[in-house]
Amino acid sequence: MFRARTTTLAALAAAAGLLLTGCSTTPDDAGGQDTAAAQGTHTDQADQGAQEDAAAAPAEAVAVDLVPQTAGREDFTECPYLSTEFVADTNGQRVTGQSIDPSFDPPACQFFSYPPEPQLTVMVRHLPTEKDAAAVIDWAAPVDTTSPAHGPEGWEGGRGVLGPDSSVYAVFKDTTAVVVWSNQEQTIKPQLVAEETIRNLGL
Length: 203
Fold this sequence. Notes:
Number of domains: 2
Strand order of the largest sheet: 1-2-3-7-6-5-4
Structural class: alpha+beta
Oligomer: single chain
C-alpha cells in the first residue's frame, strides 16, 4: 500500500565512476589525484545524504476511501470466496450478474440483481497497520451515523443504515478490514456476508 520514495543510488555511483575514470592518476597530472579524491568525497557525501533523505521521507498515506470498481453485471467473473447461491439466499435477491475488482487482494466482489446498482459489494483490505484498518472502518461506517458491530469473535467495527435501500457492515481485526454494502436496510444481511467472507478466507 505504501509507495515510499526511493533514491537511485546506483545512478549516483555510476556517475561518480565516470568522473573518476576521466581523471588522470599519472605523475604528469599532479592535480588529478586530488581532484578524483575530492570528487569521490563529494559523491560519498551525496550518497549518504540521499540515503538519509530516503530514510527520513514519510511514506504516502494509505487511502482509506477506495471503492471497488468492477466491469459490471455483464462481466460475470465469479467471486473467489462467495457463491451466488449464498448471496441470493442471504441478501434475498436473485443474482443476475457479478463482477470483481482484481486491484484488491483478494478481489473485491459485486453482485447484481435486476436494478442497475449492485445489490451487494464486498471488500477485503490488508493494511500496513491496525490504525489504517480502523480508518477504513471509520470511513465505511462513520461512528456518528452507525452502531457498534461485534463479530465474528475478535472483529470490531460498525453497522448501520446509510439511506433508503442501503446498509453496511464493516469490521476489522489486526490489520485486516472487511466491508460489505447491501441494497437492503437490514444490517443482518451484510453481517452474514461479512462473516461468510471471513470464514471462507480464513481471516
